[in-house]
Amino acid sequence: MRDIRIAPSILAWDLGDLGGAVDMCVEGGADQVHLDVIDGHFAPNITFGPGTVRALRRRCDLKFDTHLMIDEPQRYAEKFAEAGSDLLTFHAEVLTPSSFDELRSTLKKSGKEMGIALKPSTPLPGWTLERLDEVSSLVVMTVNPGFSGQTMDMSVMPKLESVSAIVRDRGLATDIEIDGGVEPENVAQVVARGGNVLVAGAGVFAKGDPVKAIGALRERARVAEDGE
Ligand code: DX5
Ligand code: ZN
């Protein structure tokens, strides 16, 4: 059975209390904390930088899954790695084969994992195929980057299926991370199509009790996996 992981996106909480959001991730038994970094260029919002990641790092030992929705990620990758990110995910739309290779070797030196993210309309680029064994996580976005609280775009499902099939057919351990509009009601659909890391912003933090909401997502995923 695949390892299902719940990754709350703290962007959906009160931005004046990100530390509190991290504490709730710990209390709810989340597997990793999803940190959305947006620069106002790549996507229409501005969130936080390495200083915030460093401050949050002091709050917990959970895996920090840093989703860099920024232009020129090579300028900042090392800063986020030093700040305590464990997995750094870059967007395919701003990568080239050579910038991927450079980033990969930079992160290898610091022992960090690397991910590739795709906007809803972006196919998996051909150049990634021969590099997939270097990628810990493929982030299939099911909303356009920028804001929490959007509705999942179900037209991404065929791409999710095909990306999952590539990973499975090659026997890779690459996580398939679903990011955008994950709610208890659609967990079964994404798990059935191969998603195993469930990012949830509003699906956790816009619920009355975020700690319980993490458990509810996990239970939905477990039922979907077991077919109960
Ligand atoms: C969107 C971010 C997502 C988002 C998730 O730009 O990458 O991680 O905040 O939030 P929900 O689950 O509310 O769509
Ligand atoms: Zn994200």
- Strand fraction: 15-25%
Structural class: alpha/beta
Ligands and ions found: D-xylitol-5-phosphate, zinc ion
What is the radius of gyration computed over CA atoms, rounded to a whole number of angstroms? Answer: 16 Å
CATH class category label: Alpha Beta
Major β-sheet annotation? 8 strands, parallel
CATH superfamily, please? Aldolase class I
Beta strands, count = 8
CATH architecture: Alpha-Beta Barrel
* N- to C-terminal distance: 14 Å
What overall geometry do the principal axes of the alpha carbons give? globular
Query: Would you give the CATH topology?
Result: TIM Barrel
Supply the number of helical segments: 8
How is this structure best described in words?
This protein is 35% helix and 19% strand. By secondary structure, it is of the alpha/beta class. Strands 1-8-7-6-5-4-3-2 form an eight-stranded parallel β-sheet. Strand 7, helix 6 (187-192) and strand 8 (197-200) form a beta-alpha-beta unit. The protein binds D-xylitol-5-phosphate (DX5) and zinc ion. D-xylitol-5-phosphate is lined by residues 9, 11-12, 34, 36, 67, 69, 143, 145-146, 148-150, 179-182, 199-203.
